[in-house]
Specification:
Layout lengths: L9 H7 L20 E10 L5 E8 L3 E7 L5 E11 L2 E6 L8 E8 L2 E5 L5 E2 L8 E2 L2 E2 L7 E2 L4 E3 L6 E2 L1 E2 L6 E5 L9 E2 L4 E2 L4 E9 L2 E2 L3 E7 L8 E2 L12 H7 L4 E5 L4 E4 L3 E3 L3 E12 L11 E3 L4 E10 L2 E2 L10 E3 L2 E5 L2 E3 L2 E4 L3 E3 L5 E5 L2 E3 L2 E5 L3 E3 L2 E6 L2 E3 L2 E2 L8 E3 L4 E5 L4 E2 L19 E2 L47
Parallel strand pairs: 8-19, 12-20, 21-22, 22-25, 23-25, 24-26, 25-27, 26-29, 27-30, 27-31, 28-32, 29-33, 30-34, 31-35, 32-36, 33-37, 34-38, 35-39, 36-40, 37-41, 38-42, 39-43, 43-44
Antiparallel strand pairs: 1-2, 3-4, 4-5, 5-6, 6-7, 9-10, 11-14, 13-17, 15-16, 15-18, 18-19, 18-20
Length: 494
C-alpha cells in the first residue's frame, strides 16, 4: 500500500504535484468560516461500500480525516488540516510535526471555489471534480464539440465548423496549425475550413479547463483506399500516411503498416475510433515539429478500443508541466499492445504508457520496455484507472526521478489494479515499494540481475528456460515484433 498517495487522475496530479509552492491570491468576497463546504471527487466512482468516494473533503476550519481505498477492499486514513483567512482557504495535506507534505490554495469568488497551484490549470472534465459553496454546485467545462466532425471532403463541400461548449459563457480557444490550443485564438465565429486542417480546441472558465477536441479535415486531398500505411510522413493530406489512413478508415478497421517503415510524427495522433494497427518491424518516432519539445505520440479517446502490434515506440517526450502524462501512449479507452517495443520514452507520469481514471483496461503481451523514464512515477507505465494485464513482457533499465515511485509500473490506490498473468521478467525487486516492480509477482514471473535483453536488437538473452504457453488467458501473440513465429520466449523479439 502506498500510504503517501491521496489522489488519482489528471487534474489531481497537476495540482497536487506542486509541493509547498502555491500561489496565494486574494478574492473580492470573503466568506465566513461556517459558509465554506467543499468536496473534491476523483471520478465520482463508487467506493467499496457503494458510496461515492471523495479523495478528500473539508468543512470549515477544523482538522479532519478522510478515507481512500487501498485497492484491496480496505481503506486507509490520511490527515489534513484547513486554514481559512478571509477568502483564502489553504489545505495542508499529511505530514507530521507541523511539516505538511503540501499546501494548496483555494480561492472563493461568489459561488465558486477554485484550486490553484503553479503546476498549471485544472482540467475538470477528466475527473468529475465538483466544488461546493453552501447551496451552490460547480459544473465542469465540457469538451468543445464541432458541428461537423472531421473526415474527407471535396473542395466544393468543405465545411464551416461551429464550436460549442457548456457553460455557454466559457471561453473556447482553437488552432488550425496543430499547435497547443491553450495558446490559440479565442473562438468568436464559425471557422471556414478551406484546406487540410487539424483543428484543436479547448475551453475554459477561469482556472478550469476542458478536455481537448481534435478533428482532422482532409480537403480536396486523396483519401487512402484500403487501410495500408505506405508513407512515413505525417501529413493528413498525403495518401498512405498513418494520419490519412486513420481519417479515412471505417470504425473497427484493421490498419496494416508497411514492413520496416519508420513513421515520423510531428504532433500527437488522436485515435477517435475502434481500430487495430499492425506493423512488422515498424518504428514510430518524433520529428522536429511540435515534438521537438513535448507531446504524447498517441492519444486514445474515451470508450475506444485500440490494439497495436509489431511497433517500436521510440523517443517520445511528454514533459509539459501542464500535462506530462504518457510519453508514447495516453490512454483514455481500452488499450492492447502486443509484440511492441517501448524504448527511450519519457514523461512526468508513465514514461511509455499512461492510462487515465476513465480507461477500461490496458493489456500488455509479449512486449519489451527498455530505458523508459518518468520524472515522477511509473517509469514504464502508470495506471490511474482500470486494470493492467501483463503476460510475457521484459522490463529492463526503466527508471524514475529522485523521489519517484515505481520504476517499472505504478498505479493509483483504489483506482488502478495490476494483474500478472505470468512469465514477466524484470530487473527490480518485486513489490509495491517506491523502487520495486509495482506488483507482487506471479509464481511464473522472474527477476534477474544480469542483462536479459540485447539492447541493439531487443532479442532476449538467456531466457531459453522460459516458454510462454499460447493458452495463457487472453492469448499470447503467435508472432514477434519482426513478424517471425514465436518460440515461446517473453519479450517483443525472439
Amino acid at each position: 500500500m502506498k500510504s503517501r498517495k491521496l489522489w488519482v487522475g489528471l487534474p489531481v496530479i497537476l495540482v497536487f504535484a506542486v509541493v509547498l509552492g502555491v500561489i496565494l491570491t486574494s478574492c473580492d468576497e470573503p466568506l465566513a468560516e461556517d459558509e465554506i463546504v467543499a468536496i473534491w471527487y476523483t471520478d465520482q466512482e463508487a467506493a467499496n461500500d457503494g458510496s461515492v468516494m471523495p479523495a478528500f473533503e473539508f468543512l470549515s476550519n477544523k482538522e479532519l480525516q478522510t478515507y481512500e481505498s487501498d485497492g484491496k477492499g480496505g481503506t486507509k486514513k490520511t490527515k489534513y488540516s484547513v486554514e481559512i483567512t478571509g477568502a483564502k482557504v489553504v489545505l495542508k495535506v499529511g505530514g507530521g510535526g507541523g511539516n505538511p507534505l503540501g499546501e494548496y490554495t483555494m480561492n472563493v469568488v461568489g459561488t465558486e471555489l477554485t484550486v490553484k497551484g503553479n503546476g498549471g490549470p485544472i482540467k475538470a472534465s477528466s475527473s468529475g471534480i465538483k466544488y461546493y459553496k453552501k447551496g451552490a454546485t460547480y459544473v465542469p467545462v465540457a469538451t468543445p464539440t464541432a458541428s461537423t466532425p472531421g473526415g474527407v471532403f471535396t473542395t466544393a463541400n468543405a465545411p464551416t465548423v461551429t464550436l460549442t461548449t457548456t457553460p455557454v459563457d466559457a471561453t473556447i480557444k482553437y488552432t488550425i496549425d496543430g499547435k497547443d490550443p491553450m495558446d490559440g485564438t479565442v473562438y468568436t465565429a464559425p471557422i471556414s475550413i478551406t484546406q487540410t486542417t487539424v483543428l484543436r480546441a479547448i475551453a475554459n472558465k477561469g482556472e478550469i479547463w476542458s478536455e481537448e477536441l481534435n478533428e482532422t479535415y482532409i480537403i480536396g486531398g486523396t483519401a487512402t483506399t484500403g487501410n495500408s500505411v505506405t508513407d512515413g510522413g505525417d501529413s493528413a493530406d498525403t495518401s498512405g500516411t498513418l494520419r490519412n489512413v486513420l481519417a479515412s478508415a471505417d470504425d473497427n478497421a484493421t490498419i496494416t503498416i508497411q514492413d520496416n517503415l519508420t513513421i515520423t510524427l510531428t504532433q500527437c495522433l488522436y485515435i477517435r475510433k475502434n481500430v487495430t494497427i499492425k506493423g512488422k518491424g515498424v518504428t514510430i518516432t518524433k520529428g522536429t515539429g511540435n515534438f521537438s519539445g513535448s507531446g504524447s505520440f498517441i492519444e486514445i479517446s474515451e470508450g475506444k478500443e485500440v490494439t497495436f502490434s509489431g511497433i517500436h515506440f521510440k523517443g517520445a517526450r511528454e514533459l509539459n508541466a501542464k500535462y506530462g502524462l504518457g510519453g508514447a501512449i495516453y490512454n483514455i479507452g481500452t488499450l492492447t499492445v502486443e509484440s511492441c517495443i517501448f524504448n527511450d520514452n519519457q514523461a512526468i507520469w508513465g514514461g511509455a504508457i499512461y492510462s487515465t481514471s476513465k480507461s477500461k483496461s490496458t493489456t500488455v503481451k509479449g512486449c519489451t520496455f527498455y530505458k523508459n523514464n518518468a520524472t515522477s512515477n511509473g517509469g514504464a507505465m502508470y495506471i490511474s484507472g482500470g486494470s493492467l494485464y501483463m503476460t510475457g513482457n521484459l522490463f529492463y533499465q526503466n527508471t524514475v526521478g529522485t523521489g519517484g515511485w515505481g520504476p517499472i509500473v505504478d498505479y493509483a490506490n483504489g483506482r488502478g489494479k495490476i494483474y500478472s498473468r505470468g512469465y514477466n521478467v524484470i530487473d527490480k525487486a518485486y513489490g509495491t515499494g517506491s523502487q520495486d516492480s509495482g506488483w507482487m509477482n506471479d509464481e511464473k514471473d522472474e527477476t534477474r540481475s544480469t542483462a536479459f535483453i540485447n539492447t541493439s536488437t531487443f532479442a532476449s538473452i538467456g531466457l531459453d528456460s522460459i516458454s510462454v504457453p499460447s493458452t495463457v488467458t487472453g492469448g499470447f501473440p503467435t508472432t514477434d515484433y519482426n513478424g517471425a513465429a514465436r518460440n515461446g520466449r517473453p519479450g517483443a523479439v525472439n
